[in-house]
Please model this.
Amino acid sequence: MSKPLKATVNCDMGEGFSLYTIGDDEGLMKTIHLANVACGFHASDFSVMNKTVALAKSNNVLVGAHPSLPDLQGFGRREMAIEPDELESCFIYQVGALDGFLKRYGLPLNHIKPHGSVYGQTARSIDLARAVVGVAFMGLAGTAHQQAAEELGVPFIAEWFADLDYNDEGKLLITKKHDPVPIEVVRQRVNTFLAYGSRISTVGGKLLDIGANIAEVSICCHSDTPGAVEIAQAVKALVDESNKEAGYV
Model:
């Protein structure tokens, strides 16, 4: 049995808009290591972004950008035909907005993680991936995400999802709306992932290697999954225990 990789817990945050709220950001920010902050194209606005960055600072959470395709109506979970140069400009625009708030609170940009459909598009297309990789990049191991990061000499953070399913080919099953996941199912998935050297359990019962040349892994808990705070608390407890037993802390 392989030694587990050093792990963190991340969550997509600041996904409300105006008076509308999605997820318990205050509760979640107390239970995670990394926050992927929405940048305005699938969710968030200047007030929400400001509040989210301030909340991250007060909880000592590292902040990454979570840019999307320009699709507020579809929450960024609908694919769009887009050229690499267009996507590069799209991401620069959004990350630049977040960076303004990071500078206001004296925080660095820790990483970039694409949101929703563009996460899948950049995982499949090396040209799109190369267009958006610039700083430490969080994405799917063994895909164009990792390839582009390695080509460009950018740190790669492999991501695994505690509240989503994988098919038997190891592909993430992304849904427009996240269904409830029993907390015991989440615990079992995380225990399997950590205990078997970061191996992914699939819907068909297989165990697949997360990939080669992986230095660190971050486990995602979505803020819009029902029971998100309880899920994040359970995952963080298991991650902290695993890191301690493996000698990382």
